[in-house]
Design goal:
With 209 residues, the chain is an all-beta fold. 0% of the residues lie in helices and 60% in strands. Strands 12, 13, 14, 15 and 16 form a 5-stranded antiparallel beta sheet that branches. Strands 4-5-6-7 form a 4-stranded antiparallel beta sheet, with no helix packed on it. Strands 8-9-10-11 form a 4-stranded antiparallel beta sheet, with no helix packed on it.
Amino acid sequence: FCGTAEVDSIESTIFLARYDAAGLLQWLQEYPLPPQWQGMQVFVSSMAVLSDGGTVISGNRQDAFGENAQQWVLRSSANGSFQFLNDVEGPGEGDNAHAVSTTDETYTVVGMRRQENPNAPGDYCCPRPYFSRFSNDGTLQWSRLFQGTRREFTDFALRTLNDGSVLSTGFTTHQYGSNAYLFNVSASGDSIWHREYSAPDSTCINRSY
């Protein structure tokens, strides 16, 4: 179980708790936010248990105005000891980073990167799916920004398939409403396929599993 803890309504730490099968607390760890994060909005999006028993927590942070979004990952050992807190570097601004354990002692982080509007400098819009794969020690293996056909929000369910590829779900928005989509990316970072499914009406699709 993970999340953020607040002091005086300001996020001050990221916490991680582990429970046994009977629901009894085994340990609780708190990781102070870096000084440069103070006063920012810090969001936790997901948690993944890695092949070595450690944990990766992923999320993003924004300034007080909801701008300058940046994705991050926090890594702990199997007993909760802090190992590192790194930004997930990429083009533009990054939101909704979700992590999943993948094959060969790796994990993959998927989220959105908002690109700057060429007609309005400083306006970051047009979210695109962004995939990054890291070794369990945090070393970047590859990263890919995929150009979709519409505003694509990759911020929901994330699964590792038997062939080592990653399946991500999300939704797109367009002038008539929203569509759900599935995106399959190989273990080497290549797009395998992309499918989009029309919604029965214009209601935004906001849950995927």
